[in-house]
């Protein structure tokens, strides 16, 4: 996560004049895309809207009963609401409503085709399985809630601390927490075991960050004695909200009124660390705590293939309607034709035949029109499984199995962070095989986010050259005995520049030495880092929310400026063995608008300075004007910054100034008013910071290295070969982003870079238009949204992102040769582009480029870039990041991947998948993504085929029996067909089948393009499947009819034969397409046939069934087995010939690679084949 784009700030202390606070821009103009899941509300807080908390008086606090208790509930159901609520949620699936209507129709006497109980079985089975799963999950939530609510904490009651269950704690009560205990509710700190009111907390349960954070009790309350005394006070705070990084309030206590900010509140779920005890007053409890308000589930995502599946389901519904209409019309015409013979015809009689006269009993006959209508409805019941209800359960089980193997993949285990791959969403596994755009954060995603101080520009001179850099412990001879005087040992080893060290150790007051002194003093002071002293009281380490700050403080310590104590009002620095105590008068946190941080310090001689660091483009605007006029120091520093950026280093500018008494007085007055305000505090504090952040003296610049993660260049190269565009969205400056792009092979030397750095809407418009004209980019070349599948497959088949021949517009031959383009655009330009009507211009240009790098972008701008592609193309997008500023981008993309990095787990918690390193993305997409897509795509088509061939067999039978809507199959055979007879092989193949080995898929990334081209699932394959299904159903029905035409077998015997034959047929069909046979696969495919025979034997042995003993008569005849053999051969012969012809004359890339694997030939044949098929 980049320092330049962070709008989630750290916590730090202030002195007597104020409190720590945060400056945070939540609604900048650059933010176009707004989702509740991406942003916090930033409504102005008015006095009348504030919440009043009376300290130690919960009754007065909640006298209007408007505050919730501290009991939490994460469960969805109760015993009473479970059944209706769960059914309501399940019936959001339209297919379930369809089967409910079918079951209801079958309960009507004229339409009772199946037994009434039997017709309900499939729907009840699916509903029950889902309900049991949901019920078990909710029972676990209830158990967790009960354990949480019944925990106990010490609460101040009548002057004494008494144990009280968490669920009974109320707003206004004073609570005492001990070390390593969990905070039960959101509390404002009143006091701690530390004399200065300091407390350390760990927020792992809240945001996943493991590093310690500091919180402070106000000095006005820290010295108060709460136990055994009457305590009172009033807190006015904002209403409950989800922003865990900001808190606006003020407090009246013992006649003092002072502000409260984020550093004064501890949130529910945090743990107290390295602090003996704390005391706090509850301000938010239960469901109103920030932790509970943030417990909303991430936006649900739906698989793209599943959305395509609805299109095919519609066509199946059309087929179903046509078949039912044909049966109904046939029935009507048949009744009209035989109107006078209805009493005597064998297929339809209006009257029973009886032996006694006068006892004639009529059938329920409703007339020809109604009989025709009833025939239509009965046909719907008979053909109901044309829409496969079992497919939904099958897909969930298959995705679950796929996730199990992805999680267990040892190649995606990160030993450094001890993190395994995580599947946090089971709905979009197959989308991993269709990605065309990847949007990646840089810091912590492509890089390690482990910062190392490398270079420094001090007083216009460059330090940190490797020739002069030596280890600190080799420095004694150079530093003149400095090591002997040095008290502190850094936990992490740092290299220093010998020349710079000599400068700092000079006993002189020359300007260069004073600038160097102030430079490192600023690095040691201007931060929110917490020093951690070890037991030996010599070794020191630093904890901070920003790795950049930790690196800078460690660098200052290595040069002799060691921060070793921080309290709520002062900081103590060890300067080359001498302690320097500095009073902290105020600290303006880093935020995404100012992009700088400043601290107001009072020195022992009562002089006051402003020390500041920040991004170069922000800092240069507040540097003294005489420097900007051409001062050599400014020019040399600027030149060094450019050099650092081109080396891929992260840069910051350091500056300082003295404050006069009048300036200090004015600032303190403004600050006091701003920090205690309950209305627009953030804006007022930003305006207050502007008073002192001006006319600064330039001290120098820092350069920090953030190394690339292992395997990043190779991963990006493989993804590019796979036809995936990788866009980098970073908060770093442009030069740094470009340098990292070159080092990770995202940018190549032959690419033409298009840079868009606009400062106005008109300038951005001109830059975009000029680039499009210069490089021959036309809107038609880039906009792929409305192109047909065939056209798109043709132009993208090679996976090189170039316009097709049809859409190449007016591009010269020279430009075509030099086509690779790279777009570099900054966040300031995106402010004008994303909010104005320039989005289409940016889209056209960006999609014509192979690489896009967006630098200096805010979090919601990242989401806006993702939405730019999602809203204008059908391409699948994936966003990957590691920090909180990547959450909006991750949630916006079709697939979100979180990195378990150095900046907490916010990105992981908002993601669909999570892993330890960026390099695992290669295996996730090229291997598991490919496998999952191929499996699920085949699974859907096979389920359509499996059910359609069964329904069409019934359709031919109904036509054969004068449209009578009768069935030769028993009710249980129809139900068991999808649920038992054929379901297990489908699931096993969907989980275990592999068309290619992982080695081949990794060796030839272009094989991934099959998913992008939708080769495994498209309309063409659907219609081919339906034609094949039609043929197989005709063979399945008519072969037994012709063979047994002159025999004496009854219709139930034929029904038994058809049941066995269709199960064997669909399993042989499946066996023809299985690419990887293992023991489980054999057991599932052939075992399902055995199970079918077993069930048939059982059903045919029950005397009350009409098919009693039929299987025993049929199985003893050779004709029975010959019939089944002929059905299998004749039905599957066209499919077999089609597969052979395709393999020989028109092989796909996957078929070529598979043939090479099977024959164990060297696979140089594959790239050649890919190239030939791509042109």
Write up this protein.
By secondary structure, the protein is an alpha+beta fold. The protein is 44% helix and 17% strand. The protein contains 43 helices and 36 strands. The strands form 7 sheets. The chain has a 9-stranded mixed beta sheet with strand order 14-36-35-34-15-30-33-32-31, with helices on both faces. A 9-stranded antiparallel beta sheet has the order 17-16-29-28-27-26-25-24-23, sandwiched between helices. The chain has a 6-stranded antiparallel beta sheet with strand order 3-2-4-13-5-11, with no helix packed on it. Strand 21 (530-533) and strand 22 form a beta hairpin. Helix 4 packs across helix 33 and helix 10 (390-407) packs antiparallel against helix 32 (920-960). The longest helix has 41 residues, at 920-960. The radius of gyration is 37 Å and the shape is elongated. The chain starts with 50 loop residues before the first strand and ends with a helix. Mean pLDDT is 80; it is low at 1-45, 472-485, 780-817 and 1164-1175. Its EC number is 7.6.2.1. Residues 908-1148 form the P-type ATPase C-terminal domain. It is an enzyme of class 7 (translocase). The chain crosses the membrane at residues 94-112, 118-136, 314-336, 373-393, 944-963, 975-992, 1020-1045, 1051-1070, 1077-1099, 1119-1138. Belongs to the cation transport ATPase (P-type) (TC 3.A.3) family. Type IV subfamily.
Give a topology summary:
Layout: E1 51-54, H1 58-61, H2 82-90, H3 94-106, H4 116-149, E2 152-157, E3 160-165, E4 174-178, E5 186-192, E6 198-202, H5 204-207, E7 212-216, H6 219-222, E8 234-237, E9 249-253, E10 256-260, E11 265-266, E12 271-273, E13 277-284, H7 290-293, H8 304-337, H9 368-382, H10 390-407, E14 422-423, E15 435-440, E16 447-458, E17 461-463, E18 469-471, H11 476-479, H12 482-485, E19 489-490, E20 495-497, H13 498-504, H14 511-525, E21 530-533, E22 539-543, H15 547-558, E23 561-566, E24 570-575, E25 578-588, E26 596-602, E27 608-614, H16 616-619, H17 625-628, H18 632-646, E28 650-659, H19 661-675, H20 681-692, E29 697-708, H21 712-721, E30 725-729, H22 734-743, E31 752-756, H23 761-774, H24 779-782, H25 789-796, H26 813-817, E32 821-826, H27 827-835, H28 839-847, E33 851-855, H29 859-870, E34 876-881, H30 887-892, E35 895-899, H31 906-909, E36 913-915, H32 920-960, H33 971-981, H34 983-992, H35 998-1003, H36 1009-1012, H37 1019-1043, H38 1051-1073, H39 1079-1099, H40 1110-1115, H41 1118-1145, H42 1149-1159, H43 1165-1174
Parallel strand pairs: 15-30, 15-34, 19-22, 30-33, 31-32, 32-33, 34-35, 35-36
Antiparallel strand pairs: 1-8, 2-3, 2-4, 4-13, 5-11, 5-13, 6-7, 6-12, 8-9, 9-10, 14-36, 16-17, 16-29, 18-20, 21-22, 23-24, 24-25, 25-26, 26-27, 27-28, 28-29
Helix pairs in contact: 2-4, 3-4, 3-9, 4-33, 8-9, 8-32, 10-32, 10-34, 14-15, 18-22, 19-20, 21-32, 23-28, 32-34, 32-37, 32-38, 33-39, 34-39, 37-38, 37-41, 38-39, 38-41, 42-43
